Amino acid sequence: MLWTELLKKDHEITERVLAAAEKAFAMKGGPTNALIANLLDYVTHYADRCHNQKEEQHLFPLIEQRGIPRHGGPLAVMLAEHEQAKELLAQIAPLGEAVLKGDRTKLADLGKIFSDYAALLKSHYWKENDILYPMAMQAMRPGDAEAVVKGIEALESSLGAGIRERYYALAETIIKSVDLEDLAYGLDRETLAAMLNTLPIELSFVDADDTVRYFSHEHGEKIFGRTRGAIGTKVQNCHPQKSVHMVNQILADFKAGKREVAEFWIEMGPRKIHIRYFPVRNKEGRYLGCMETVQDIAPIQKLTGQKRLLDTP
Asked: To which H or E segment does residue 269 belong?
């Protein structure tokens, strides 16, 4: 795994932990003591003492050697924000311990400081992902990326066998304890439908019983025309008889977990139509149905060079 993938995965997991904690603090009664204990453990021993040290001991010194200055610029900002995070954790720890010992009057103060900490980390991770890491990759020489990975692995080993797996598991415990919603939560149906209809890809969905339940771009031009009459129809009835056996094979493979994608491409005049099928599963892995995507990729195939300027409207 690349060093960027390792560090960005830490960011992703920690951001979900932060979101779960913020939800818990906003709930009536606030987080349970068990959640607070897990949260203190995670942010102190993993987000700070493990993740940040991967960067401070192995990534930051190397890219400084490659010409990214420690004083001034993005690297200086990242180091300063690491210190700000430590200062906030120093305030969080005693408040958390007080709550764990039974003083729930400290809960509001704990929630306020933790909110500041979460805001700092979310902004910090964005800067690293989008600014510092790309700069670091450009500055690195052959062998540097491998050295960072080895350094990360060595640091993790020094903190205990399987520390990453252990704290990722703890993160999932925190996240599941508050039933953290998917990112689509809060989008109203009109907005979500408009987003799907705006995509340059046509979508359709067949449920676990092979029944057509949705297709996008109802009121727009479609590559494969269909009407509302398709909704509620078995998908096998929407395909020519000669291809039904293939449809059944794809769906059977999806349901059995034998296949994660099926794709085809055909030519229709000047168009090159790319058709893909994906199994849709919930968080527990239960099969919910099949999604089809249809896209004319002929314009994409013609792209050459680069385009960095905005066209005149």
From this structure: none
Taking only the tens place, the pLDDT of each residue in 237-249 is: 988 899 999 999 9
pLDDT recorded at residue 12: 96
Centre a 10 Å sphere on the Cβ of residue 189 and count the other Cβ atoms it contains: 7
Q: Is 313 exposed, middle or buried, given 0-12, 13-18 or 19+ CB atoms closer than 10 A?
A: exposed
Q: Nearest Cα to 264, choosing from 244, 293, 302, 299? A: 293
Q: pTM here?
A: 0.79
* 127 three-state secondary structure: helix
Residue 184 has pLDDT above 90, yes or no: no
Reduced to 3 states, what is the DSSP secondary structure of residue 312? Answer: coil
pLDDT in tens, 62-75: 999 999 999 989 99
d(CA 213, CA 231): 5
Instruction: Give the pLDDT of residue 292.
Output: 97
Q: Which fold has domain 189-301?
A: Beta-Lactamase (3.30.450)
Query: Is 1.20.120.520 the CATH number for 3-177?
Result: yes
The one-letter amino acid at 163? I
DSSP secondary structure string for all residues of 204-239: EEEETTSBEEEES-TTS--SS---GGGTTSBGGGGS
Alpha-carbon distance values, 233 to 76, 219, 222, 226, 304 (Å): 60, 20, 19, 12, 42
CA 187, distance to chain mean position in Å, is 18
Domain ranges of the chain: 3-177, 189-301
Q: Which two tokens stand for residue 102?
A: 């039974």
- Judged by DSSP in three states, 154 sits in helix
